[in-house]
Amino acid sequence: MTRTIDLGLLFSTTGPYHLMGQASLAGALKAIAQVNADPSLGIAFRAVVRDPGGDIDAYAPLCEEILKTSGARHVIGCTTSWSRKEVIPSLERMGGVLWYPTPYEGFEASDRVVYAHACPNQHLLPLLDHCFSAHGKRVYLTGSNYIWGWEMNRIAREASGGVGGDVLGERYVPIGSTDISRLVDEIAALKPDFVLNQLIGPSQYAFLEAMAELRARDAEFAEGRCPILSCNMTEAELPVIGAAAEGVISAGPWFRGLTPALPGNEGREDFGSSFEAAAHASVMMLARLLANAPEAETLPLPDLLALPGADAVGISARTHHVTLPVAIAQVRDGAFVPLRTYAPIEGDPYLTRSQMPEVRPLIKVAT
Amino acid sequence: MRRRLSIPELGGARAAILHRPHATVTALTRQLEAVGLQVDCHWPELPASARAADYLFIDVDTAHDDQFPWDPGEAPLPTIALIGSEAPGRIEWLMTFGADAQILKPVGDNGVYSALLIARATFDARIGLAGEIDALRQRLGQRQTVVQAVALLAARGKSENEAYEQLRGMAMAWRISFEDAAARIVSSVGGPQDTQPPQGRKNV
């Protein structure tokens, strides 16, 4: 007999980063429909949806509302690290589990969270490794003024020191600010080999526009010189960025056209971006853990991951991070074109066991 | 001054925990293993082998000096205090014993990684400072010897400044410290003529 399980979905589908939130929500809903249509799993999910609207102070209350007013113990949600850290105390207090399906900067391994998208050994380090050899070692670092940019750039600074590279400059922009002329002026003067960009939202859009203008007037920045790097740009944001995204090199676990998608997607590939794919994989992995395990939805996460057969799902019981493939892709004519792919590698949030993932030939790329 | 943190090598590092079996140990172990450390739990004695660990966690609620094979303040490895009771007597014991970082109990979901980084940086700074202080103390203790050596050299018809410079030249030629050169002068029975630098290098 099928048992129905409440499942919280906590994404900002309105507000400043609604494109990412919508992509994540779409992936989760796709997986719920898939689970509910599969009688062999013996479970059905009932979505309990809340939209914090990008308001950081709305996350914890809405997470508690899900846990209080429904039977849900598991919540798929959050786009930013800041919001994830906001809900963790609520999860602890009320015995909930968060499935966090977006890229982040690492250095966390909560007992209450599954980290289902990439961390730095799965995005930043392979991206830098590729760009040090393809473009050079004179680096410029920029980002929005909060933990994601600060920590990613600190790791980049360390990685660059490790290969004898040179960090020419490092500048931050307040979240939401589009005043990026000083930043672009500095880049124009310093002429780095590439720019590592950890800007988010409108700041990133304004920056890419200004860099496109720079490329049009300064030959030193034309023809693919001084590319801009990203660790969280996906197809989800390409439509709003438009032509200014051309040439951006991004790292992620999957881009459209690559086969297969994530291990947790179980062969499915009909996603718009890795945000959607990772949210789908989160729900599917949870379904695998709960299927045919009565009452398992009430178990704390460590106990759930200790169930027989749980290791096959691909979540590390030690760190709660997942094993993911790595792809580096460049925006060309409005789509991501893969430059390099790597074999799946386990998430290493504290970078204590990191090896570079193995380069894997670009096989089975659909056109 | 801006302090740039150098991140220690934590993958495969060993942590020793001196705490009775308890949920605190479970939570601590989980966090340490997530970071990538290997964990050894000890109770009630800390074996001598624990000296070889890279980090030590101690339970301030129950700890006493006899548990540790070293004197208070001289822990040979970065030590992290687990504080439960905030009774002043326990804090006083901790201040004497010395710790490089602390975590408040109950230990929950986080806190261990930052404690490891802080403990390592504080420990390294502590060891570095102790070495520097030792060296300074030693030099201070040799001040009298320097005065004697300068007086001996000056007695051969030099001004005090010339004698001082001569001593400095000897130290450089012998490739030893100023204080050691002074000690050599003072201990040489026949005075400076018998202690010319071996290379015969001329010193002014």
- Please mark out the parts of chain B with pLDDT under 50 across 5 or more consecutive residues, or reply none: 197-204
Q: Main sheet of chain B, how many strands, which sense, barrel?
A: 5 strands, parallel
Order of helices and strands of chain B: EHEEEHEHHHH
Question: What is the CATH superfamily classification of the largest domain in chain B?
Answer: Response regulator
Q: How much helix, percentage-wise, in residues of chain A? A: 25-40%
The CATH architecture of the largest domain in chain B comes to: 3-Layer(aba) Sandwich
Order of helices and strands of chain A: EHEHEHEEHEHEHEHEHEHHEEE
Average pLDDT metric of chain A: 95
Total individual domains of chain A: 2
CATH topology of the largest domain in chain A: Rossmann fold
Secondary structure tally, helices of chain B: 6
Bin the strand percentage of chain A.
15-25%
Largest sheet descriptor of chain A: 8 strands, mixed
Strand arrangement across the biggest beta sheet of chain B? 2-1-3-4-5
CATH class of the largest domain in chain A: Alpha Beta
Fraction of residues in helix of chain B: 40-55%
Query: Which superfamily, in CATH terms, is the homologous superfamily of the largest domain in chain A?
Result: Response regulator
Please report the number of helical segments of chain A.
10
Do you know the CATH topology of the largest domain in chain B?
A: Rossmann fold
List the helices and strands and how they pair.
The complex is a heterodimer of chains A (367) and B (204).
Chain A: E1 3-10, H1 18-36, E2 43-50, H2 59-69, E3 74-77, H3 81-94, E4 97-100, E5 113-115, H4 124-134, E6 138-144, H5 147-162, E7 166-173, H6 181-190, E8 194-198, H7 201-217, E9 228-230, H8 238-241, E10 249-252, H9 274-290, H10 301-305, E11 323-332, E12 335-346, E13 359-360
Parallel strand pairs in A: 1-2, 1-3, 3-4, 4-5, 6-7, 6-8, 8-9, 9-10
Antiparallel strand pairs in A: 10-11, 11-12, 12-13
Helix pairs in contact in A: 1-9, 2-3, 4-5, 6-7
Chain B: E1 14-18, H1 23-35, E2 38-42, E3 55-59, E4 79-83, H2 88-97, E5 101-104, H3 112-141, H4 143-154, H5 160-174, H6 178-187
Parallel strand pairs in B: 1-2, 1-3, 3-4, 4-5
Pfam family, one (chain A): Peripla_BP_5
Organism (chain A): Poseidonocella sedimentorum
Protein name (chain A): Amino acid/amide ABC transporter substrate-binding protein, HAAT family
